[in-house]
Amino acid sequence: MVSTGVGLFPTEPIGAMRELTLLAESLGYDHAWFGDSQNIWRESSTTIGACAVGTERITFGTGVTNAVTRHPSLLASTWATLAEFTGGRAALGIGTGDSSLRTMGLSPLKLAELERAIADLRGLLRGESVTEPASGAEYRLNYLTEPAKVPIYIAASAPKILRMSGRIADGVIILVGTAPEFIEAALATVAAGAAEAGRSMDDIHTVLWTPTAIGDDGAQARSLVRAHVSRVVIRPLPAEVDPRMQAAVDQIRQHYDYYQHMVPGAEHASLVPDELVDMFALAGTPDECSARLDRIVGTGIDQVSIVPFVPAGASREPTIRTFASLMDGR
Q1: Average per-residue pLDDT for the chain
Q2: Rounded to an integer, what is the distance from CA 35 to the centroid of its chain?
Q3: Mapping DSSP to helix (H, G, I), strand (E, B) and coil, where does residue 20 land?
Q4: What ranges make up the beta strands (E) of the chain?
């Protein structure tokens, strides 16, 4: 059976975020993934810690953080502490860095730098000393009395990072859309990386990350996710976009504004045609979304994790409830 996750960008005060987290747990969601982009959303670590209070089952993750704004020493200490507090319900989602860096004019990490950061994180979480690259000094988490068991998930869409995820990650958060050909191409690339390291897909938990809007008005639902779809297509993808759509993709890449990162009313959202929405999101009426979920589940993905989008001022609760009902029994 495919598990469920929900991506909760900290766009609301912590009290509202806690209510959504508790709702997700009550509905059987397996993971709550929190966005980490300090210039456009509320601070993620504070939000996650508060949301964990009073929960019993759901696993907390970042969707996703980076090792630039958060030094590996800080990441390791944060996640060791969260794992301790939740009884092991912590999953560190990390990537090269996106809006958290680009809103300040900083560049994402190179893949080799991310791989080094992940190796350091694992060493620190085991209680070992690692070397700080800039200073050459050794450091460790001095308070650990035993290893902290925190799986590390890599966020990936482009072929090179998908392959690296297969080699080294405990899990991979896949952002390539909802069309089966893109999902299957991503999974095949992860599998190739796993084989290079003598691993199999049984060693890797795969999460499909999808912008989601579900409502009786299918046209409105599609409009709500256009901004997130634009974020998906600005990155390289594991399969070719239909040539008819490439011109739209080129326009989106040219005009993307990271200070409107995944904001439904973003100017670059207007550049996204319906055909791209249907390829890269879960949006439409409940019946339309149910049919698309049948195709997604058939790809062999382990978890479908939604990022719910709703009209300004509306609650994400109905979307979270509807998706849970659509996934029931799948």
Answers
A1: 94
A2: 7
A3: helix
A4: 3-8, 31-34, 59-62, 90-94, 130-131, 138-139, 152-156, 171-174, 205-214, 282-284, 303-308
Specify the pTM.
0.93
Contacts of 246 (CB under 8 A, 6+ apart): none
Pair 60, 89: CB distance under 8 Å: yes
**Beta-carbon contacts of residue 323 (< 8 Å; ≥ 6 apart):** 4, 6, 212, 214, 289, 306, 308
User: How far apart are the C-alpha atoms of 69 and 221, rounded to whole Å?
Assistant: 34
Q: Quick one: pLDDT at residue 306? A: 98
Q: How far is CA 176 from CA 17, 122, 281, 325, in A?
A: 26, 27, 9, 24
Q: Among all chains, which residue has been given the structure tokens 């996703």?
A: 64
Which residue has 């070719």 as its token pair?
Answer: 240
Neighbour-count burial of 297, counting CB atoms closer than 10 A to its CB (0-12 exposed, 13-18 middle, 19+ buried): middle
Q: Which two tokens stand for residue 125?
A: 């979480």
Is 61 in contact with 29 (CB distance < 8 Å)?
no
Dist CA 321 CA 40 (whole Å): 26
CA dist., res. 132 & res. 309, Å (int): 40
Determine the angle formed by the axes of helices 159-168 and 180-196, rounding to 10 degrees.
Answer: 50
- Over residues 84-101, the mean pLDDT reads 95
Q: 8: which strand partners? A: 34
Neighbours of 169 (CB within 10 A): 28
Beta strand pairing call for 130-131 and 138-139: antiparallel
User: What are the Cα distances from residue 94, in Å, to 156, 271, 301?
Assistant: 9, 29, 19
193 and 165 in contact (C-beta within 8 Å)? yes
Strand (E) or helix (H) holding 50: helix 44-52
* Cα 132 from Cα 138, distance rounded (Å): 6
Distance between CA atoms of 301 and 178, rounded to whole angstroms? 11
Query: Residue 263: pLDDT band by 50, 70, 90 thresholds?
Result: low
